[in-house]
UniProtKB/TrEMBL annotation:
<keyword id="KW-0560">Oxidoreductase</keyword>
<dbReference type="GO" id="GO:0016491">
    <property type="term" value="F:oxidoreductase activity"/>
</dbReference>
<keyword id="KW-0614">Plasmid</keyword>
<dbReference type="InterPro" id="IPR013328">
    <property type="entry name" value="6PGD_dom2"/>
</dbReference>
<protein>
    <recommendedName>
        <fullName>Mannitol dehydrogenase C-terminal domain-containing protein</fullName>
    </recommendedName>
</protein>
<dbReference type="InterPro" id="IPR013118">
    <property type="entry name" value="Mannitol_DH_C"/>
</dbReference>
<dbReference type="InterPro" id="IPR008927">
    <property type="entry name" value="6-PGluconate_DH-like_C_sf"/>
</dbReference>
<feature type="domain" description="Mannitol dehydrogenase C-terminal">
    <location>
        <begin position="1"/>
        <end position="69"/>
    </location>
</feature>
<dbReference type="Pfam" id="PF08125">
    <property type="entry name" value="Mannitol_dh_C"/>
</dbReference>
Amino acid sequence: MRYVAGIDENGDAIDVVDPMNDKYRHIYKNYNNPSDQVRELMQLKDIFGDDLHKNHKCLTEILAAYTRLINNGARESVRMLKFGGE
């Protein structure tokens, strides 16, 4: 999800090479809130199927991980997962 946003953690553009890139760009252009972005991305049936977006626990976990990446970057997020902590 971080990659398909098209911006890396330093704010630099990422050239997203994916056949669904138009859908990703639409989502990130129209939804600024990470919660909304995750919700919309999870509704992409070609990736997540028809019902995964209805699983509240799954959505909560994915949103937490995505938010951690946005707030802390990849390296720190991995450290937090490995050693614990928020």
